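Our consortium's second objective concerns turning raw sequence data into structural hypotheses that experimental partners can test. To show how far this objective has progressed, the report includes one record in full. It was chosen at random from the queue rather than selected for favorable results. The single chain below, 435 residues long, was entered without modification.
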Amino acid sequence: MGEQAVTVNLQEAVFRSVETLSDEMISWLQELVRIPTLNPPGENYIAGAEFIGNKLREFGYDTHYIPAEGLPEHTAQHPRVNVLGRIEGATPRPTLHFNGHFDVVPVGEGWTVPPFGALIRDGKLYGRGVSDQKAGIAASIFAIEAIRRAGIRLHGSIEQSGSVDEESGGFAGVAYMARHGWIGKDKTDFVIITEPSDVDRVCLGHRGVYWFKVTTHGRIAHGSMPHFGISAIDQIGDVLNTITHKLKPTLATRKTAAPVQPPGSRYASINVNSVFGGQPEEGTQTPCVAHRSGAIFDRRFLAEEDFDQVRSEILAMLEGLKAKNPDFKYSMEDLMIVHPVHTDETCQLVTTISDSIHTIFGRRPQLTASPGTYDQKHVVRIGDVAQCVAYGPGILNQAHLPDEYCLIEDVVNSAKVMALTAMQLLGASPFNGTR
């Protein structure tokens, strides 16, 4: 598959088409933002999937709804439903797949505008999930529609998917679709995940993630006679102290060569997600030595770090505490393991989308890697699709903030980038006749 030549006339026709339908695109995006597809617990996923699916069907896609059947999180109360649409080209391959997740994180405090009001003010569209990443879904869908309305036909095939649960790992979303053959190397050549990338950056991959839980086990006793007990809280305190004063400084010396943004995230790190133990904060307290305590940790590891060594390092630390204290008892549970991914920056997808960004903005894009993970891990490791990047409108550091917003100009410009990239990857020519 070679990059297809796209004439200047076709480019300009598509750019004009994007601008012509920009009001329609933003209006549709506002309606999508107004659907509170909250994760957790997974609210309004069917409404979100159907809203996207209806637009895909209207624009000529063969549309499918994909429930994550068999997974425990797919329940009658909170069903996990994805949507995928396909427009068959003159040839089935190559296929370019755009994916965006439509689940959004909880609203949180500190908002000065209605979080699901989709307010437009000063060139910004406000709302929970607009940057992360409903604006990207709108941009990709309307980018391809702009090509059609400009009277241009793509030679290869286009797919668009809206997926769930990315914010909690994507296992009922892109992972499920990849595992069941909806995305995979036998049918998919290129994948663009429309995560926010500051509109003139291309994200090539992400660091690794290791979530794990350490539980310490003590012995209950009366709080007035703690010498008869063993405090599990004291023990988890030793774990936290060792991580803070010994492990963290060690990790801070390990730096990746990958272009992770922001630069502070180029170092290995560990964070405490939560601490538990003893009696609930609310309610009546009784005088007891806590017999169980623990914490959940988020370890971000680098491509240069071997995962087995990452895990062994934690175990060695715990065994060291046990060797010093015969009363120290613990158990450790793996919660999530995500290995780093990184797309070759010289591959066709990266060079093509980079050229498109240069055409639109007059400058070469910055190639980056993400500090956190996103659904590229499933596309690459389950679907075995090597050419996958993240690119979309939205300001990365707006993700999950109160008063989250996306610049309307960025949505329009990223749609132009996506449209030009699709034409270059798949081939395009003036369309004569009916669809």
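The partners drew two points from this record. The chain has two domains: 8-206+340-430, 209-338. The chain has a mean pLDDT of 96. Both points have been shared with the crystallography group to help prioritize constructs.
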